[in-house]
Amino acid sequence: MAYRHTPHGSTGYSPYFLLHGREMVLPTTQDIRAKLSPKVKGTDYEGKLENLKSSLNLAYKMVRRNIRKSNETNRQYYERKAKKRSFKVNDWVYLFNPTRKRGECSTLKFLW
Question: What is the domain partition of the chain in residue ranges?
Answer without folding.
Answer: 2-36+48-79
